[in-house]
Amino acid sequence: MDLTLPRHRDNRPADILHLADCHCFVIIGANGAGKTRFTSAIIESLGAKAFRLSALDALYGRVSSPDAIPAALRDRIAPQVLGNLDKSPALLELLLQQLMHDEMVNLISYKLALADKREAKLKRTRLDRVIELWQEVFPDNRMLIDSGKILFARGADVDNYSAYRLSDGERAVLYYAAAVLYAPSDALIFVDSPEIFLHPTLTISLWNRLEATRPDCTFCYTTHDPEFASSRNGAPVVWVRDYDPANAAWDYDVLPDQSEISQELYMTLVGARKPVLFIEGDSRRSIDAKLYPLIFPDYTVQSLGSCNKVIEATRTFNDLATFHKMDSFGIVDRDRRDDTEVAYLRRKRIMVPEVAEVENIMLIEDIVRTMAGIAGKDPDRVAEKVKNTILSLFRADLHQQALQHTRHRVKRIVEYRVDARFSNIGTLEKHLEGLLQEVSPRAIYEQLCREFQNYVKNRDYRAVLRVYNQKSMLTNSNVAPMCGFKNKDKYIEGIIRVLRRSSPEADRIRAAVRATLMPE
What we know:
alpha/beta; four-stranded parallel sheet; 13% strand; elongated
């Protein structure tokens, strides 16, 4: 089946979704982007083929007349059940009544066949299938039939209760199960906010089960949840960016398949509709994740873990810039990269700070001065003491630091030499002949030692922060107690706390961080 999507704001030819091999598709967008109107426009174009589900309406809306029931469902509800609308029940209650009505019709047909001595067999009803699905989703709960009513119980509890005592999530599952089974054959089932009322761990498995119950139907999910959207493996995803009410047109696109960036991550970023900043570290515990969102508040900041993931994600996202029309950058620690490597990364829109690692940012002189001033300390005195301590630590560690930098450079040179095409082992051997002499690690080491000694001799504090990789440096510098903090973690928390406020001190810290990330 081919589905023609609504009018595009750019007046380009209508997009067409090819659904022949798809059991579902997803419409995603931020709140207020117009995705619900977009879905409604598709439903209107389909007529009787469309079957819309909304747990919010089914649980809390009241059905006062047959016209209030979607036409595709109204045609499948018995007149006897519709006769109860004078009580203005919710749609869920109406569906439960219809399930019981079908069950009773099945039982009566079975008994009549027995009475006539005809071959009789109880058919499997929709209620049987709802009970089966209910107990798969909630294995500790039971669904019972007693005196023509559907009741529920937990575990071995003998206290049975009606659907009114179920939680919103349980009632939503009940509604979805019943409604999907009453959808017409080969329908397009449109689901508004499939995750509403449901725990994330339940949502994905529930819709997997419901799709399996109706292999003849195609499901369309309208959502703002990228995790759920990405769970529909292989499904087309329509990203609705904005709505133009004057022309009843939308700004939207069908998302391209992603390999380097997961579809969930891609949809999270484009859904935020802000420029994107990829960073290293853990999204909750790392200094990067705490610091950079406060330095770049106008960006969607996404932690990816390793520097390689940041570099690859930035490249991929920028390759797709003509599609999503969004700016993106990355930030990786300088570590032991030389100027050539740093320049290459910056050309690829990867910011590399003028300090070795993110912890060193906390030792930038302007930041130390600002934090000392906030604590009522003498900024000049504190900054000078921190500088003297760092220079002394670096002097003591100089040869080991030079060795580590040498190791990094040698590793990069060897990688470049080996990363080539060779027709046979002989060609490779010849290519690598004299590699040790060419690389000359001792010459690199001795040159670095001379450079590092000059940094100490000239008291070049900024240069030392640029090359000194030592996790304990923040602690050993004593910057925290000198600025009035118990330890380095409290010092970092203090900087983050200042950045959360609007103040001249926050502006100075932010300017210092940006200066090291984007040097002229």
